[in-house]
Write a structure and sequence with these properties.
With 616 residues, the protein is α+β, with helices and mostly antiparallel strands. The chain is built from 21 helices and 19 strands. Strands 1, 2, 3, 4, 5, 8, 10 and 11 form an 8-stranded mixed sheet that branches. The longest helix is centred in the middle third of the chain and has 21 residues, at 349-369. It is globular, with a radius of gyration of 24 Å. The two termini are 39 Å apart. The structure holds ligand BES and zinc ion (ZN). Zinc ion (ZN) is lined by residues 309, 313, 332, 335.
Length: 616
């Protein structure tokens, strides 16, 4: 067996899946999906086809043409990272039908009870598949090396509606005959066409990596904010929907800007789904429909930055995709660059530079975090035996950004813009690795390897000396104010009069990791940072407060950890409590996690667990 991806059981000598047809029956009572997956391969195959699953139970595997059972076996013990390998024995088929059920603990799915939703009266379920969780929803070759088209027939309660990162085809009544494959498994025969059920059909006609498969089901409402953009929230969350529609009013301008910079927008729709507060990321670039945390809606249009980022993935990440997670920087580094180009046009160069500064700070912090694990400071890194969720960091984003910017600085913007457009046009709908990019770069910018040490940038550790610490008046001013705090001076009201969340974030992140408790409290008394509605500011401050042993803030920390499940906030707060704290802090971390655990997405549960087990 020759793997093509350290995170998948897919064998490089096997044909890859090109199309998946799913029938899914969502059972909200048991948090289980009863499904069938018809996988079509690029060519007929004889032998043992290797697939990825995670906590999935298989009922039967059939030849879709004859409906004859096909032999298969399931590995006895799951691999802690890759999950359970399933091997299907084919004799010349080019497709295979698998009837299966998911588990209530499926790592991609969060099932919310009515009480965990805004409505309090309807349940909700949503997916998060990146990096390697699609395999917990359906058996597949779960590697971005395999690009799939798909269609889905989804059977849900008729009081709910479904959205997907795919074209909505229609909503209709279920038909009993279409359940016959599922009934070969554990779905009772009358359930599919029960009176209270409805079917939603979707089709994805552009080939995507499996990690971009996504859906959400709940009582949803929407508003149109542009010719190709709707904003969705729970329909009961009227104020949130209003605020989101305002916050994202400029989306169409950003799409047009993206098209000017990077080429046509290839996905037709660009809808936005604002999820419940437990959504584990800021944003996820699911094609046609980006998923967003509600914490980006702050009423100051800074949420537009996250939208700019996820939009930028429409070109870098979704059109050109990293072939596996070892080349994740190709997705996130390019996207961070593209995001800042869009921000520069729609919000101005000052804001773009401020974001660059926050990124620079984040990058230098990561170098400290990974000082005993230098592999994680490389753009292209070895992830054999490594769980992508455990090594998620700013390195692929910010070092990747720095590398792309380094090339831009070398050849100038005009030449670079032309190069970028050509790069995207050449590799669109392809999954590539770092070397493919470097070969293309050298072929199109002759002599570049003499100007930039490409190998040092992509395979070396740390931050290369020719990286660029941003400069702007406001950036320099904030850094020097942060230095003065160490000498006991607080910024004056005048100095912060124009500050928004991002300025405060940059300021707080440049303060020493821990400070004199009285000074920290004085800062908060004056500027009310712990109560900020902006979670970036609130969490940066609380992190400082924990590390400075200001225990009066423990109540606020607990509230924050119970209100949102975004890992960008859970990680630093739980780390600060567990790593820098004394017994009281460690105790708080354990207690809050025990109480909040069930409200977190399974991916976030796993990440917090590994932080706590490292330090406690
Ligand atoms: N694709 C990522 C989110 C992700 C990364 C999910 C790895 C799973 C595994 C997304 O595009 C992203 O980077 N989101 C950022 C927001 C952004 C503005 C940098 C986030 O969630 O914080
Ligand atoms: Zn991203």
């Amino acid at each position: 067996m020759a793997p093509i991806d350290p995170h998948s059981f897919t064998d490089s000598s096997h044909p890859l899946t090109t199309h998946v047809s799913l029938s899914l029956y969502l059972d909200f009572n048991s948090s289980i999906i009863h499904g069938s997956a018809l996988l079509t391969l690029s060519s007929a195959f004889s032998g043992e086809l290797s697939l990825d699953t995670r906590s999935i139970s298989i009922d039967t595997v059939l030849d879709p043409l004859t409906l004859a059972p096909l032999p298969y076996r399931v590995s006895a013990t799951p691999d802690p990272i890759r999950g359970t390998q399933v091997v299907v024995v084919l004799s010349g088929q080019s497709s295979v039908l698998i009837v299966y059920s998911t588990s209530p603990s499926a790592s991609a799915l969060q099932w919310l009870s009515p009480l965990q939703t805004f409505s309090k009266s309807h349940p909700y379920v949503y997916t998060q598949c990146q990096a390697i969780h699609a395999r917990s929803i359906f058996p597949c070759q779960d590697t971005p090396a395999a690009r799939i088209r798909y269609d889905v027939v989804m059977n849900i309660p008729n009081s709910l509606s479904a959205v997907m990162s795919a074209r909505h085809v229609r909503r209709r009544l279920p038909v009993p005959e279409e359940a016959k494959h599922l009934e070969a498994g554990s779905l009772g025969s009358s359930l599919w066409s029960g009176e209270d059920r409805v079917v939603e059909e979707f089709a994805m006609e552009q080939p995507i990596p499996p990690y971009l498969f996504a859906f959400a089901v709940g009582e949803l409402g929407f508003r149109e904010v542009g010719p190709r953009t709707r904003v969705y929230t729970e329909s009961a969350a009227v104020e949130l929907l209003d605020a989101a529609a305002l916050e994202f009013a400029g989306t169409e301008d950003m799409i047009k800007q993206g098209e000017m910079l990077f080429g046509d927008y290839e996905w037709e729709r660009f809808d936005l789904l604002v999820l419940p507060p437990s959504f584990p990321y800021g944003g996820m670039e699911n094609p046609r429909m980006v998923f967003l945390t509600p914490t980006v809606i702050k009423g100051d249009s800074s949420g537009a930055q996250v939208v700019a980022h996820e939009l930028a993935h429409s070109w870098t990440g979704n059109l050109i995709t990293n072939i596996n997670n070892e080349h994740f920087w190709l997705n996130e580094g390019f996207t961070t660059y593209a995001e800042r180009r869009i921000v520069e046009v729609v919000q101005g160069a000052d804001i773009a530079t401020l974001n660059m500064g926050i990124g620079w700070r984040g990058l230098t912090d990561e170098m400290e975090r990974f000082k005993d694990n230098l592999e994680c400071t490389k753009l292209w890194n070895n992830q054999e035996g490594v769980d992508p969720d455990d090594v998620y960091s700013q390195v692929p984003y910010e070092k990747g950004f720095q590398f792309v910017l380094r090339i831009e600085r070398q050849i100038g913007r005009t030449a670079f813009d032309e190069f970028l457009k050509k790069y995207i046009a050449t590799f669109k709908f392809k999954s590539i690795d770092t070397n493919t990019f470097l070969e293309f770069l050298k072929a199109n910018i002759p002599g570049i390897e003499k100007e930039i040490n490409l190998q040092l940038w992509t395979e070396g550790v740390g931050i290369p000396e020719d990286a660029y610490e941003p400069v702007s008046t406001i950036y320099t001013k904030i850094i020097s104010l942060a230095k003065e705090f160490k000498e006991g001076r607080m910024p004056s009201e005048d100095e912060v009069a124009e500050w928004n969340g991002q300025e405060w974030e940059l300021y707080l992140e440049n303060l020493p990791k821990s400070c004199e408790p009285s000074q920290v409290m004085a800062l908060d008394k004056r500027y009310r940072l712990a109560e900020s509605k902006d979670y970036e500011v609130k969490v940066s401050f609380l992190q400082l407060a924990i590390a400075s042993k200001c225990r009066e803030y423990h109540g606020e920390v607990e509230k924050a950890l119970k209100a949102v499940g975004r890992m960008k906030y859970l990680r630093p707060l739980f780390t600060a409590l567990a790593q820098t704290g004394g017994t009281e802090e460690k105790q708080l971390a354990k207690q809050v996690f025990a109480e909040a655990r069930e409200t977190y997405h399974p991916i976030a549960q796993g990440v917090v667990e590994s932080i706590l087990s490292k330090y406690i």
